[in-house]
Every structure is written in structure tokens, then in C-alpha cells.
Specification:
Elements: E1 4-10, E2 15-23, E3 30-38, H1 40-44, H2 51-72, E4 82-88, H3 92-109, E5 113-117, H4 118-130, E6 136-141, E7 146-153, E8 156-162, H5 168-178, H6 185-193, H7 218-229, H8 238-267, E9 275-279, H9 286-298, E10 302-304, H10 308-311
Parallel strand pairs: 1-4, 4-5, 6-9, 9-10
Antiparallel strand pairs: 1-2, 2-3, 6-7, 7-8
Helix pairs in contact: 2-3, 5-6, 5-7, 5-8, 6-8, 7-8, 8-9
The protein binds 5'-O-[(R)-(carboxyoxy)(hydroxy)phosphoryl]adenosine (KG4) and zinc ion.
The site of 5'-O-[(R)-(carboxyoxy)(hydroxy)phosphoryl]adenosine (KG4) has 19 residues, from helix 5 and helix 6.
Length: 319
């Protein structure tokens, strides 16, 4: 199969991104450029992403981000085979900005337009970076997503578990807010947890031992809130609370993944060396990664984590 060169756009949350990728869909592809403009500063004052602000910021930034992606790849529109853009799920204002821009470019350049499901792009990133073969087990953990999927083939995904309430990154962000750490909370909670005692607080370990592979984090978050709001809570025990929260999250995630591993092995014919792929922003958490590596090792799985900049939202995965 010949190589295709695709321009991809991503605007579904708070990253304005454009990338040019070359490949044939089998084995790793080549990322010719990958520009990500984070709107972090725009939303920091609000402690979370404000959809209306995000849409406007995408509109302002996208044209120059696309120009930069083409320049970085040293390619002109004539060298592009198709334009791809996130068509959902995501914040609707942002999705419209990216998708409408992609439609306009496709029309002006007379190229096909490819509408991409954002979650599918996350699910397949590891094929772009590492050429991992089908099937594999995917744990997708980010601010908006929390799912366990069997990735059997292109377009053939089996949902083993999902969150019943908050995504795990969302729980990290909310706990960060309770501990008065800056947004985005995940990396700050992880850093603080490193200096704390994970056994200091006895927090719920959500969903442990359940036969399904679902997640739930809102009860854990509420438990943290109750501790922080209690009159006898000491400022100095924040690190212990961060460490205890992270330990609960790790216990819950590893238990859920263990269930999904069994589902994956029961339903699919696993390859000789089955792979657990971890994607999404929370995959950047070193303690979570280490716990998942131990679990994968125990279960006879390999573990693959795309590089952090391709774990979080980006346009290379869309392309
Ligand atoms: O994939 P992503 O960039 O955006 C989407 O949500 O789609 O993920 C961002 C999420 C945020 O909730 C952030 O707090 C979390 O990933 N995150 C982390 C860490 N780094 C990022 N959570 C825990 N530990 C980290 N080191
Ligand atoms: Zn995402």
C-alpha cells in the first residue's frame, strides 16, 4: 500500500492542534510536524475549561497553527492527500471550528475530508508510534475519558468498562482544587503525593472486587472533600492526603484493569505477547504507570505507553 500524507486538526477541548503525518496505516507512521497550542493560561483562572472561551481561542489560533504545521513539515497543500479533523466527541463549539476549517481547506484544495472520532484516535495512537498489532487491550485515562477497550481491528472496539461518574483526570483536577493546587491538577497532585504518606488517610477504594470493569471516582473525591473541610484538617497533611488519594486511585485502576485483562483473554484470541496500551493525559502519572507495569508483568502482558506529548490531546493522532 502506498503512503498517504494527511493534515490533521484537533480542537475538541483546550488544545488547538495541527499535524502532518505520513504512513500507510500499517506499522509506525512518520510524524512530519505536530503543533500543539495549549489554552492553559486562558482557562487557569477558572480552574477548568470554559467551552465558550475555548471555541473563541481555537478560532483565533487555528489558521496560524495550520500554517506552522505545513511549514514544519516543509510541505505545500499540493503534497497533502487528505484533511482529517476531530468530528466528536468534544466541546461542540471547538469541534465546529476545527471541522468547518477542515471542510473549507478540503474544498479549496480539492482533497477528501476525513471525519475522525477523537476516542478512536486516542485508541489507535500506539499504532502510529509503535506499530502495535491488533488486538490489544486499551486503558484510556484522561480528563474527559476513562475507558477499558478491546481494540480488535480498525473500527472494531469492544467496551469492557467505563466510568459511572467522573473520569480519573477529572478526579485529579478536582482534588487539586480542594488542595488549592494550580490547574491542571494532575501533575501537581502527583508531585505533592511524592512527599506524602499514602497510608496516612483511609480513603474508599472504589469498585474493588466488582465483576464488571467499570470505574467510579466521585465517592473518592467526596471523601477527600470531607477530610479537607473538617475543622481539624491540617494544612501540613495535604501531601499525605494527596498520596492517600493517589494510592486509592491506583488500587482502583489496577483492580479494574485486572478484570478487563481476563475479559480480553476470554473474548479474543490474544497474541503470544498480548499488549496493554495506556493512553490519555493521566498516563503521564509515573506512579500509575509503575503499578500498571507490575500488573501487566504479572498477567504476562507487555505494556506500551505512547510518549506523553502523544498521550494528551494532539493532532498527529487525528492525522
Ligand atoms: O488527555 P488530556 O490532555 O485531555 C483530555 O482530557 O482529553 O488529559 C488531561 C488530564 C487532566 O485531567 C490532567 O490533570 C491529567 O490528564 N493529568 C494527570 C497527570 N498529568 C496530566 N493526572 C495525574 N497525574 C499526572 N501526572
Ligand atoms: Zn482526548
Amino acid at each position: 500500500m502506498r503512503d498517504f500524507t494527511i493534515l490533521g486538526l484537533e480542537t475538541s477541548c483546550d488544545e488547538t492542534a495541527a499535524a502532518v503525518v505520513r504512513g500507510c496505516g500499517h506499522g509506525p507512521g512518520t510524524i512530519l510536524s505536530n503543533i500543539v497550542f495549549s489554552q492553559l493560561e486562558e482557562h487557569a483562572a477558572f480552574g477548568g475549561v470554559v467551552p465558550e472561551i475555548a471555541a473563541r481561542a481555537h478560532l483565533e489560533a487555528l489558521d496560524s497553527i495550520i500554517e506552522a504545521a505545513l511549514a514544519d513539515a516543509a510541505i505545500s497543500p499540493a503534497g497533502i492527500d487528505a484533511v482529517a479533523a476531530t468530528a466528536g466527541p468534544g466541546l461542540i463549539g471547538g469541534v465546529m471550528v476545527g471541522l468547518t476549517t477542515a471542510k473549507a481547506l478540503a474544498l479549496a484544495w480539492d482533497k477528501p475530508l476525513i471525519a475522525i472520532n477523537h476516542l478512536e484516535a486516542h485508541a489507535l495512537t500506539v499504532r502510529l508510534t509503535d506499530g502495535v498489532g491488533f488486538p490489544y487491550l486499551l486503558l484510556l485515562i484522561s480528563g474527559g475519558h476513562c475507558q477499558l477497550l478491546g481494540v480488535h481491528d480498525l473500527g472494531r472496539y469492544e467496551l469492557y468498562g467505563t466510568t459511572l461518574d467522573d473520569a480519573v483526570g477529572e478526579a485529579f483536577d478536582k482534588v487539586a482544587k480542594l488542595l488549592e493546587l494550580p490547574y491542571p491538577g494532575g501533575p501537581n497532585v502527583e508531585a505533592l503525593a511524592r512527599t506524602g504518606n499514602p497510608k496516612a488517610f483511609s480513603l474508599p477504594r472504589p469498585m474493588l472486587g466488582r465483576a464488571d470493569a467499570n470505574f467510579s471516582f466521585s465517592g473518592l473525591k467526596t471523601a477527600v472533600r470531607q477530610i479537607v473541610r473538617a475543622p481539624d484538617f491540617w494544612e501540613s497533611s495535604k501531601a499525605d492526603l494527596a498520596a492517600s488519594f493517589q494510592a486509592s486511585v491506583i488500587a482502583s485502576i489496577t483492580d479494574r484493569v485486572a478484570v478487563a485483562v481476563d475479559m480480553f483473554c476470554a473474548n479474543a484470541t490474544p497474541p503470544d505477547a498480548p499488549t496493554l496500551v495506556v493512553a490519555g493525559g493521566v498516563a503521564a502519572n509515573g506512579a500509575i504507570r509503575a503499578a500498571l507495569s507490575r500488573l501487566a508483568n504479572d498477567k504476562g502482558f507487555q505494556i506500551e505507553v505512547p510518549p506523553p506529548q502523544l498521550c494528551t490531546d494532539n493532532a498527529a493522532m487525528i492525522a
